[in-house]
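Q: what sequence does this backbone want?
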């Protein structure tokens, strides 16, 4: 059995999620698209901050540990936002 194209599947799932929550990027005005992309950019920045918090980046704090499971979750979140952005900017 062939493996499905995982990125294509991610894009399909993101489009379905967007439609379910009322986000339809097709036919957006420039103003709507700009606002939507700004919101997604802010969300992606937050996800990146959460990913950063998953790794022991504080050189002065010896108590930190790498939270691999949370890092995986944050990377998936980033992929979802990236795939949503891809659809709007296409």
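A:
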């Amino acid at each position: 059995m062939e493996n499905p194209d995982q990125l294509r599947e991610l894009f399909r799932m993101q489009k379905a999620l967007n439609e379910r929550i009322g986000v339809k990027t097709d036919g957006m005005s420039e103003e709507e698209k700009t606002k939507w992309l700004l919101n997604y950019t802010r969300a992606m920045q937050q996800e990146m901050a959460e990913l950063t918090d998953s790794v022991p980046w504080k050189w002065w704090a010896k108590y930190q540990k790498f939270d691999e499971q949370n890092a995986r979750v944050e990377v998936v979140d980033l992929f979802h936002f990236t795939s949503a952005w891809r659809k709007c900017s296409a």
